[in-house]
């Protein structure tokens, strides 16, 4: 009974942490893109730079945060990251200087990454292997609720310059409150996590970066995740700006509400599918790819409001599901080292996002429309599918994977 209560408490804390880290730290910015363009008069190249700095911070702490979580445990790092994230939100609330916002964006990305990476060792510590998808999906669904919440709130505050800044102030306040909840209720790392922690192992892990692209299974899942980063970042960061561009600015908040609502379902739905179809996981993930591809290409083929709603909703229904499935693969393979290895893979994934978001802004400024942005996104998804197919072909052939890569005994 006591173990069940602890698991439920950890699930709730993880859910709230992801709500802040991803729902606000990562996906509040795309909602505010039109705000930066209309009120700050930032160019899309400047907006792309801010988004890229969020991703740069995410990149840096995907790996550093993963190592720190493994060495010190997740409680200290999560609380520290939440407090710094509150400061980053507060800077967005109080200043309008582009260079200060660049600094704040970087901090936002660093903290969001550290908090996101924590769900993988938490899953290994707290839940049975056969339920990773369901429980990670529940925690990741916090991001969808965060997106939904800011979408509804932004309906009232992003309409004019005098109130638009308050959305960042609210984010700072909620982040501090969640930090306090973690302080009082999040337990330290469990013994089986702590007892496996060894500085020498970490040193050996950091020395094996070259093998990331020489072991077939790990290389292909990493490259699939890398190109998926290209696909999703260029679509998600500019789809609302695209709606404004084709005279649907009045529907931006409702479009984002559709994304947030479907995102809540996404992680849990695909997590359950992954848990219950282990032998058919390739079909589950391929289905996710197909639906995502339809979502990305639809606005380009039929630039009408109804189809834009459908596109964003379908993308939301798939997005966190993809992350849940990939995360489950990595946690099952790397176990107590999941934060380190997911950190490595996420770092590479984030490089793609940085390049994608900046390229998308430049393409929009250069062409005056978003057509090339969506073409770029869809093409990147096709490349990701190619490496995903290679990954499962390796599995069928019985190629050794992660265990060869991280062997250190």
Architecture overview:
It is a single chain. By secondary structure, the protein is mainly α. It has one domain: MFS general substrate transporter like domains (Growth Hormone, Chain: A). The chain is built from 19 helices and no strands. α1 runs antiparallel to α10, α5 runs antiparallel to α6 and α13 packs antiparallel against α18. It is globular and about 50 Å long.
Mean pLDDT over the full residue set: 78
Question: What is the total number of structural domains?
Answer: 1
Question: In angstroms, what separates the terminal alpha carbons?
Answer: 36 Å
What would you give as the CATH superfamily? Answer: MFS general substrate transporter like domains
Give the proportion of residues in helices. over 70%
How many β-strands, per DSSP? 0
* Radius of gyration, taken over Cα atoms and rounded to an integer in Å: 20 Å
Main sheet attributes: strand count, strand direction, barrel closure: none
- Supply the CATH architecture: Up-down Bundle
Low-confidence stretches: 190-197, 403-409
Portion in strands: under 5%
The SS-based structural class is mainly alpha
């Amino acid at each position: 009974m006591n173990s069940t209560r602890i698991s439920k408490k950890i699930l709730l804390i993880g859910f709230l942490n992801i709500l802040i880290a991803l729902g606000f730290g990562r996906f509040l910015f795309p909602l505010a893109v039109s705000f930066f363009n209309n009120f700050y008069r930032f160019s899309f190249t400047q907006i792309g730079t801010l988004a890229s700095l969020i991703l740069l911070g995410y990149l840096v702490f995907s790996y550093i945060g993963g190592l720190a979580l493994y060495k010190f445990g997740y409680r200290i790092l999560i609380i520290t990251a939440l407090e710094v994230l509150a400061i980053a939100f507060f800077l967005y609330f109080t200043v309008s200087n582009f260079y200060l916002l660049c600094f704040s964006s970087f901090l936002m990305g660093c903290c969001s990454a550290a908090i996101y990476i924590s769900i993988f060792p938490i899953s290994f510590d707290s839940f049975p292997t056969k339920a990773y998808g369901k429980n990670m999906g529940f925690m990741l669904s916090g991001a969808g609720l965060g997106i939904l919440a800011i979408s509804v709130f932004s309906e009232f505050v992003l309409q004019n310059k005098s109130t638009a800044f308050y959305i960042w102030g609210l984010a700072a306040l909620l982040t501090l409150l969640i930090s306090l909840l973690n302080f009082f209720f999040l337990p330290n790392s469990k013994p089986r996590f702590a007892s496996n922690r060894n500085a020498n192992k970490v040193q050996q892990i950091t020395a094996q970066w070259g093998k990331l692209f020489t072991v077939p299974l790990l290389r292909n899942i990493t490259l699939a995740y890398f190109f998926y980063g290209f696909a999703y970042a260029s679509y998600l960061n500019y789809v609302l700006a695209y709606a404004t561009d084709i005279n649907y600015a009045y529907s931006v908040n409702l479009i984002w509400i559709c994304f947030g609502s479907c995102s809540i379902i996404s992680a849990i739905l695909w997590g359950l599918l992954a848990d219950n179809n282990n032998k058919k996981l390739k079909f589950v993930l391929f289905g996710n790819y197909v639906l995502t591809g339809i979502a990305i290409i639809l606005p380009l083929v039929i630039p009408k409001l109804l189809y834009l709603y459908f596109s964003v909703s379908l993308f939301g229904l798939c997005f966190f599901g993809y992350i849940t499935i990939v995360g489950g693969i990595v946690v099952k393979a790397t176990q107590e080292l999941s934060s380190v290895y997911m950190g490595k893979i996420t770092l590479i994934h984030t490089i793609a996002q940085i390049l994608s978001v900046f390229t998308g802004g430049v393409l929009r400024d250069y062409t005056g429309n978003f057509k090339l942005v969506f073409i770029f996104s869809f093409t990147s998804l096709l490349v990701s599918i190619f490496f995903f197919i290679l990954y499962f072909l390796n599995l069928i052939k019985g190629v050794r994977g992660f265990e060869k890569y991280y062997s250190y005994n």
